[in-house]
């Protein structure tokens, strides 16, 4: 059984109400996965088994057990255990953890996922489209070539120009940026064309 003295120190420094919760999470992790290795990552207790498996932390108002691949764990446990994953993620001080048996089932599922080498799919975070400010729209209308290229740009290129222009603090700066943007856009250049890799 791997026990990292830094985790002992972390538990000792945690709020008194959180200490038994952290100790119980740690015990459940070791009961479920005897080959787990303890460490500290991002200044927090972390449990590794063929990669990061789980972590725990105590804050002023709550204690948390974070399953590194929580979505994959939830996909293979019962509906009751899925709720337990969410419950364990944020246990308000004074509230109980899920039972030891439940925690052990969740950790065993997490260990199995790491055994299988599964990777949790990353959610694509798309920034919402920025509305083109009226003053840029008016400038593009006066410059048909730039307007056609701008409309053909992918959303990321449009966003870069819009953010650059609306970030101008003064009218004179904004006017200079619009003039520069029209020139670059008409040439089919992205806002950061100077930094793009050249073939």
Write up what this structure looks like.
- The chain has 199 residues and is α+β, with helices and mostly antiparallel strands.
- The chain has two domains: 5-115, Aspartate Aminotransferase, domain 1 (Alpha-Beta Complex); 134-194, no CATH class.
- The chain has helices spanning 5-13, 19-32, 70-76, 79-89, 100-115, 134-141, 144-152, 155-166, 171-186, and strands at 37-41, 44-48, 52-58, 62-67, 91-92.
- The chain has a five-stranded antiparallel β-sheet.
- Helix 7 (144-152) packs across helix 9 (171-186).
- It is elongated and about 70 Å long.
- 28% of the residues are buried.
- The mean pLDDT is 92.
List the helices and strands and how they pair.
Blueprint: H1 5-13, H2 19-32, E1 37-41, E2 44-48, E3 52-58, E4 62-67, H3 70-76, H4 79-89, E5 91-92, H5 100-115, H6 134-141, H7 144-152, H8 155-166, H9 171-186
Antiparallel strand pairs: 1-2, 2-3, 3-4, 4-5
Helix pairs in contact: 2-5, 3-4, 3-5, 4-5, 7-9, 8-9
Please sum up the structure shown.
The chain has 199 residues and is an alpha+beta fold. The chain is built from nine helices and five strands. The radius of gyration is 26 Å and the shape is elongated.
Q: Biggest sheet: strands, sense, closure?
A: 5 strands, antiparallel
Instruction: Work out the helix count.
Output: 9
Oligomer: single chain
Under the CATH scheme, which class of the largest domain?
Alpha Beta
- Structural domains: how many: 2
- CATH topology category name of the largest domain: Aspartate Aminotransferase, domain 1
The outline comes out as elongated
Rounded to an integer in angstroms, the radius of gyration calculated over CA atoms is 26 Å
The residue-averaged pLDDT reads 92
First-to-last CA distance: 53 Å
- What's the count of strands? 5
Proportion in helices: 40-55%
Structural class: alpha+beta
